[in-house]
Amino acid sequence: MRLHDPDRRTFASDNYAGVLPEVLTAIADANGGHQIAYGEDEYTARLGEVVRDEFGERAEVFPVFNGTGANVTALTALLPRWGAVVATGTAHIHADEGGAPERVSGLKLLVVPAEHGKLTPAAAETEAWGWGDEHRAQPLALSITQSTELGTVYSPDEVRALTDFAHERGMAVHMDGARLWNAAAALDLPFSAFTSDVGVDVLSLGGTKNGLLGAEAIVVLDPDRVDGLIYLRKLNMQLSSKMRFASAQLLTLFEGGLGVRTAAHANAMAARLRAGLEGIDGVGFSHPTQANAVFAELDLDAADRVRERYRFYDWDRAKRQVRWMCAFDTTEADVDAFIDTVRAALRR
């Protein structure tokens, strides 16, 4: 039974996109017969080998159901109950997870302002203090997002500056990689070059924003930094019994470079969208377009007229800011039609 128009695409979120055909095939291929449950299957074993190839020989992978679960479980494994995490005010763990890190893990988030969504050592230093003060939650980790919630990308040098800052102070570093594939495509670098090689300790590896079906993972890059993750995954309701299907999906993104190719396409569509609207009266841009997100400034009435045809979200209505997202299935024709719609809305 089909209840929707399979040819309709919007610019609201890469989460709106469906599942990659290759992933559906991988799920079918993983079906049939019996495989040991809870991660002792052949697909999860193979995923572990691939993750070590991609992120380093010490890397360990723990498939989970969703990004919130990955972030919360990873941070819980990094910190004692009195620990605090320094992050930007736009960080997903702060702004978009319903308080889950604080409610589920009992940790404290210490948020700082950040230009274009990128944490810097100078900004982190405003909250990274007070160790040994019994009245203050202890800042014991940094969390950064790659690519950021504002569509920007950290360079390896920027990540290294943050990990050096953290490690010098006895802090760990978590990377929220909900759109890590888009970052890899934008940087044109292997994953290790901007994660394990530059000091990231634990990573939330996204999948659903790049065509997977309820499959994400925690990748531990420095096992000495985490504690009890195998228990916490169960405790946080993120342990899949039929894990082979999650692992098969993640494997599909890695094998043959599929995940980077699809993310590169989404990035290219965002670049096309921005290029098609730059210089038009009535359209401004709030942040650089480095991955698959375009943050624009648009008259509110014009934005609502565009919304009559395409769904998308206001980012900050008071500032007339909107967010347009591209996905692996966004086409050039989709982008060009959207540009025409924005132009027409501005003329009305």
Question: What structural keywords apply?
Answer:
single chain; 39% helix; alpha/beta; globular; 348 residues; 7-stranded mixed sheet; 4-stranded antiparallel sheet
Provide a compact summary of the structure:
The protein has about 350 residues and is an alpha/beta fold. The protein has 13 helices and eleven strands.
Strand order of the largest sheet: 1-7-6-5-4-2-3
- Strand portion, in percent? 15-25%
Main pleated-sheet profile = 7 strands, mixed
Structural class: alpha/beta
From the spread of the alpha carbons, the general shape counts as globular
Q: How many helical elements?
A: 13
Rg over CA atoms, rounded to whole Å, is 20 Å
Distance between the termini: 40 Å
How would you state the average pLDDT, rounded? 97
